[in-house]
Design brief:
The protein is an alpha+beta fold and 88 residues long. It is built from 4 helices and 3 strands; from the N terminus they run ααβααββ. Strands 1-3-2 form a 3-stranded antiparallel beta sheet, sandwiched between helices.
């Protein structure tokens, strides 16, 4: 599945990449897009899609509440209801 990373997603990642990586991995939107494509980051349209994603890849989220999953380091809140999931 090919992901499209719009400016809102790229800016969110650039501003918040420190929550997942100790040092910046991208300085520009172009570099961010390349990095996200390279690690096959996923844009989820809702919190429910984030939960579905983790279930589909086999992450044990039994007993985890939605809030703790959405606060995981690899989950970035874009700010428009969408979430970016980056597997470090």
């Amino acid at each position: 599945m090919m992901q499209e990373y719009d400016d809102a997603v790229l800016d969110c990642f650039l501003e918040n990449q420190g929550q997942l990586f100790p040092d910046p991995v991208a300085e520009t939107r172009e570099a961010a897009e390349y990095f996200l494509e390279d690690c096959m980051a996923v844009v989820a349209e809702s919190a429910a899609e984030v939960l579905q994603y983790f279930e589909e890849i086999g992450t044990d989220i039994e007993g985890e509440d939605e809030k703790s999953i959405l606060e995981a380091d690899e989950v970035f809140e874009v700010g428009d209801g969408r979430y970016l999931i980056v597997e470090g």
